[in-house]
Amino acid sequence: MDRPHLNRLTFLTAAVSLAVSGAASASGFRLPENSIAGLGTSNALVANSTELGALTYNPAGMSFHKKSGAVAGLMDINLDLKVDPQGGTPTDSTGKDNIGVPNGYFVGQLQNGWAWGLGISAPFGLETRWPAGTFPLFNATGTGALAPEHSKIAVLNFNPNVSKRISPNTSVAFGVDFYNAKSMVFNTQGVAIDGTGEGTGFNLAVLHRAGDWSFGGSYRSQVDVDINGQVSGAPATTSITFPWMLQVGAQYQATKALALEFDIERTGWSKFDKLVIKAPVAPAPANLITSTNNWSDSNAYRFGGTYQIAPRTQLRFGLALDKTPQGDSYYSARVPDADRKLYSIGIAQDMGGWSLEAGYMRVEFDDRTVNNPAGSYATRLGSGNYDPNGTDAYNGKYSASVNLYGIGVSTTF
């Protein structure tokens, strides 16, 4: 096989997984921790009408705030990921030990129940990096150059919103999601690949208060992002469909100091079904490969609360269960996903005019053993299909955990 053709096959095999860059703290490669308040409550905030950090989950809450305000935070994500591959040696992913993720929200009050806001978050991302030889079947079949190496995605969402209080107890909101895929790396052991792209979607939200109860709902549409990148200096393109997300929740003010909330989120991962790769082929670009991910829509169940332990001190806590959308039939080591449990705690201290916030979350992945039929990768290669997803090339036991630390500030004016 000539070298240019091998480079192209290598690029295609890596690019079909370009959206799956690592184990995140929600299903698939989603990062739902959009504020320090969310970090401390396991993201159970969609029905919260008081916290500034809840506005990125449900912007309809803007019209319930009496003042303008701003909140900003930074999270440090520490991922521990390892595989015990079939026929190989237990190996740790060697991606960055610590990844910083920013978040923030500004809300401005207008007249007649109107408010506007701007949120900044990183809804998708993270990173894996596998040393050469981690998955021995690639070398055994003469396709070592196709084995995964560095996979990374970093997506920022710029989210302007407007909200309107349509009655004393009900508010609605509309916004636009601008996704900036600012860093994408999809290296194999043979070729370095990178790309960037942008896309636009929308979001709708509602929040209703009824005595000690509050009810919230938020929907974010799917976002199609066109990716332009390079392989060995030559241009190549593809597109990613990021999933829609629907959240509903209820909060109960149990006492003057204690508020409890339960949320359910549905993520439309079935939209992340196929990736069609294009590259320059004379006389014109042509579709070269289609990769089927075959993911399913998945649910997350979140419980969180806040407790005012002192007039100026708030304790936060939460736990959650996130179900994976990924089955064994197209399993990929670029995103060794599994069901996971989340445990979190946080605190907010009013300093007079502004508040200091901190939070911690522990994410425990279920161990996952992949045991696809022996010879399935060789059979696929024999048919001219170089995609290793869902074959015995990735057989083995995968385990992971994540620690997230966050600190932030907020103020009203």
List the defining traits of the structure above.
mainly beta; two-stranded antiparallel ribbon
Structure description:
- It is a single chain.
- This protein is mainly beta and 413 residues long.
- It has one domain (3-412): Outer membrane protein transport protein (OMPP1/FadL/TodX) (Porin, Beta Barrel).
- The chain is 7% helix and 55% strand.
- A hairpin with a 5-residue loop joins strand 1 (69-85) and strand 2.
- The longest helix has 13 residues, at 3-15.
- 50% of the residues are buried.
Brief write-up:
The chain is mainly β and 413 residues long. It contains 4 helices and 20 strands. It has one domain (3-412): Porin, CATH 2.40.160.60.
Low-pLDDT windows of residues: 1-23, 282-288
Question: How many domains make up the 3D coordinates?
Answer: 1
Judging from the principal axes of the Cα atoms, what is the shape?
elongated
Number of helices: 4
CATH topology heading: Porin
Examine the secondary-structure arrangement and name the CATH architecture. Beta Barrel
Q: What class do helices, strands and sheet pairing give?
A: mainly beta
Helix content: under 10%
Q: Give the ordered list of helices and strands.
A: HHEEEEHEEEEEEEEEEEEEEEHE
Strand content range: over 45%
Beta strands, count:
20
Mean pLDDT: 88
The top level CATH class name: Mainly Beta
In CATH terms, the superfamily is Outer membrane protein transport protein (OMPP1/FadL/TodX)
Estimated radius of gyration: 22 Å
Tell me the distance between the termini: 66 Å
Largest sheet: 14 strands, antiparallel, barrel
Question: Spatial order of the strands in the main sheet?
Answer: 1-3-4-5-6-7-8-11-12-15-16-17-18-20
